[in-house]
Amino acid sequence: MPDERVVTPFWVRVVADERFRDALIEDPLRALAATPDVTVDTDQLRELDEMERDRRAEVIAEVVREVHLRGAVARFGQIGDDGRLGGGSPG
Asked: Over 31-69, what HEC string results?
């Protein structure tokens, strides 16, 4: 029977798996080595690994926020002038 292992794209796993995300912030190479079902661009991994920990945490948090915001906008509409998703504009 063929190996039907599911491989997850790197950034999908980062957004979806808080434990992986935390491990990635602490030590990107170790986190990836412990998670063999993730595919990643080597240049992106090298860039993350070369960052200082605090900078890496900022970059990863920004990606997660952006993905969640885009998902919310796709479901509920743009952020209105009143600051709410799907919020109205002044008349």
From this structure: HHHCCCCEECCHHHHHHHHHCCHHHHHHHHHHHHHHHHH
Separation of alpha carbons 24 and 40, rounded Å: 12
- Walking along the chain (91 residues) 10 residues at a time, the average pLDDT comes out as 76 95 96 92 93 97 93 83 68 43
Q: Which residues pair with 38 in a beta bridge?
A: 8
Domain-wise residue ranges, the chain: 8-76
- pTM of the shown model: 0.77
Amino acid residing at 71: G
